[in-house]
Amino acid sequence: MRTLFKFHGGVHPPGNKAQSTQQPTAVAPIPAKLVIPFRQHAGEAAKPVVQVGDHVLKGQLIGEPAGFISSAIHAPTSGTITAIDIQPVAHPSGLPDLCATLIPDGRDEWVERKPTDYRTLPADELRHLLRMSGIVGLGGAVFPSDVKLRPLRDHPNKDIGTLILNGAECEPWITCDDMLMRERAAEIVQGAEMLRSMLGSREVLIGIEDNKPEAIAAMRLAVADSGLPFEVVAVPTIYPGGSAKQLIRVLTGLEVPSGKLPTDIGVQCFNVATVYSAWRAVAHGEPLISRVVTVTGNVARPRNYEALIGTPLTDLIALGEPLPDTDGYIMGGPMMGTPLPSTSVPLVKAGNCIIAGSKKLFPPPPPALPCIRCTRCAQACPADLQPMDLYWFSQSKNFGQAQAFSLFDCIECGACSYVCPSHIPLVQYFRFSKSEIRMREQEKQAADRARERHEYREFRIEREKQEKAERLAAKEKAAAAAKPVEPPVVATNPDAAPENTAQMKIQAAIEHAKEQAAAIKPKNTENLSAEQLAEIAEIEARRARIRETAKSDVEPPKE
Amino acid sequence: MAAFFSPFISKPDTVAQIMLRVMLALLPGIAMYVWYFGPAILVSIALASVTALATEAAMLKLRNRPVAPFLQDNSALLTGWLLALSIPPLAPWWLIVVGTAFAISISKHLYGGLGNNPFNPAMIGFAVLIVSFPAQMTHWLTPHGLGQVELGFLDQLRYTFLGSLPPGVTLDAITMATPLDTLKTRLHLDESVKQIFDMPIYGRLAGQGSEMVSLGFLAGGLYLIAARIITWHVPVAYLGALFATAGIFHLTDPAHYVTPLFHWFSGAAMLGAFFILTDPVTSPTTNKGKLIFAAGAGLLTYLIRAFGGFPDGIAFATLLMNICVPLIVLYTQPKVFGKKHPSGKNGGAQ
Ligand code: SF4
Ligand code: SF4
Known about the structure:
The structure holds 2 protein chains of 2 kinds.
Chain A: E1 26-27, E2 34-37, E3 47-48, E4 55-56, E5 61-64, E6 73-74, E7 79-87, E8 97-104, H1 123-132, H2 145-148, E9 162-167, H3 176-183, H4 185-199, E10 203-209, H5 213-226, E11 231-235, H6 244-252, E12 267-271, H7 272-283, E13 290-297, E14 303-308, H8 313-320, E15 328-331, E16 338-339, E17 353-357, H9 376-380, H10 387-395, H11 399-404, H12 415-419, H13 426-482, H14 496-520, H15 530-553
Parallel strand pairs in A: 1-14, 9-10, 9-12, 10-11, 13-17
Antiparallel strand pairs in A: 2-8, 3-5, 4-7, 5-6, 7-8, 13-14, 15-16, 15-17
Chain B: H1 15-37, H2 40-62, H3 67-71, H4 75-86, H5 93-105, H6 121-132, E1 140-141, H7 153-162, H8 171-174, E2 175-176, H9 179-188, H10 193-197, H11 210-226, H12 233-252, H13 260-264, H14 269-276, H15 287-307, H16 314-331, H17 344-347
Antiparallel strand pairs in B: 1-2
The structure holds iron/sulfur cluster (2 copies).
């Protein structure tokens, strides 16, 4: 038996997972129209490589990666591209984005697929294959997987000893990973071996919360069948035990240092669905064009569906048959998901679950009372923060203090809000503060740039004056040289000295400005890895809308 | 689905429920009180409740705050109950009314209301009363079976509201100094602990009757811990520190210093350990901080009891430690996940 470790805090919200696991995953029918966003992953949006009117085959590339952190987008079925334009998407920011509209021809005709034996390909070609197959993290972050499989830039020889497969699925209601593990365990295990070989890991741990005995049994069986030395570990069911850093801690006892990545402690972590898609991409030549999505909540037929990316959510919801008192939909789980402004948006790679809501299932919270410092939030916080203090700083817009008290280590899991007896939307305050700090930081940088420009201009004018004076002096000197003995205008190095002083001054001014900027810079927004930057961009976009909707609600109770 | 952001679910706990359960946990102690000292305490609790709610409502109105949600949070009621349980039950009606009104209006609302008061309101109320009306604060009822006379419920009511006693009965005949007080006075008269304890007012652990009330509070307190309404930190540290300090003195000179158990079951030690020092608003938020805070209060309680001028030390120990809370919290921040250091003062700068 492996010794498991604990992380601080966590909560036990009702699981509500049984509803959607009564029946096997069904294949959702091909809809009449697909809308495929070009930005479905963290990083740069894909660049369209098809035109309106093009006929495309299932699995054909329609958007190519544009940038280091980017991924490919494919046609989920065969048909005609009828539009490439800005459409509303399920992006949590609510902002519309560039999409291709595809009218299926009903033949569902595949492009030529090239199954590959991964053992015959060098790692960099495999990575390229994954990138061109649109493989991104399906656990929610949609970070391009090929980037996570690159050798470590700083120390290429430092190895990643442990590969962790995240099958914890700790959010209530969501069961798509559960069903995938029950039904397609063998391929997940194959995929894990492929990724293990790419990373050169010695150990593979598959973490599954112990509220999923069927998935654990299926995965154990698949591992035994494969003869691979992987370990399927049943981890205690506790939210947010499926958060990567928390799962790593439970399985290995290691804490990913604040602001660092798991690879810094020799661990890499992939969601089971991602591993499955990676395997399909390589072994079957099938790019990521569908995913399993849970349709549950206030519906008559909760179930998991394998649905094509781009399927309008309305179609998926209709399969579940929402009950009459349904009054809204959540994308994702009830702890970290976002409300859907509209159901006409398409399914994207990040879409793991659609929950129909009603007053009964998700009753509106009672009005918030002042914090009574009961510390239930601190007892629940998996990041060992003191949410009531962060709340106090956020509410009083004391962002510097909030940062000093590790605001940016908050993983926005919502456990604190969940337990607060005063029903303060704590995590909402933290999202707000973080985005506020980032915005100020951006403004600050813009101001700094403007100041630098201004200082440079001053410097240039000064230099021009100087040069003029020098030219004059040189002329005079020449004239003087023609004359007999006259004291030289400038004793030594006539052209360098004055300019140097001016330059030094300006340099000093710029340096000073930079220092100031550095001093005020939020600690957690510097030296970020590409992965983190992409994540931030993602979250930032989500906040744009949150700020709008939340403005009225999050006004602190006036005291 | 009225929420616009996650989480869309929350635990069904509310402030009102938490306060209500704390009040429920007081019931065993109150029951003991009634059993040994008669129903006078119920009258004080009722008076305190009415005053607390009325003052709370008036202050909310004055401060232009919504009255209903705050009046329903039960926090003012709890303050009133705690104060009623800390002062002599047989007292003129205005004593508890003045104390409660002061606690709610000055020490709670003038500081910003629920959640914002640095000092424990009930203890402020107590401190104000003992400073302003020391005489009334020393007439404690004699437990059942020990006094020369015993007052019926109606007689108790008549005294509370009209200030009149049945003919021939003096206040001294029905009240006494607390066992803690008696102990202190007699020790000054150079009697030994053993001699003093032969007095009928002393029971097995501490004062007759009052020791049972303390046991009642202990039972309620253990329920609070079991129900996860409070954590173990404050009671354990408080009682631990009180026990340790009293124990050291007792070991050095048993004739002059009573046993630590006597201190545990005397006065408001149990009430303080589980119900007063655990007030979330006025105690530290960090676990380490709670230990320091409560241990400090335990030490102070002992020092005030043994060497100070007041009969019991809980109120002043609590208030003194309340002052230290912000500092304690600042220096006891826990280590953050993935960091080597705590946040804030020490670790914020990394
Ligand atoms: S749970 Fe809510 S009331 Fe309790 S300390 Fe945290 S923020 Fe304050
Ligand atoms: S949302 Fe942030 S502060 Fe709240 S429990 Fe999660 S990590 Fe802690």
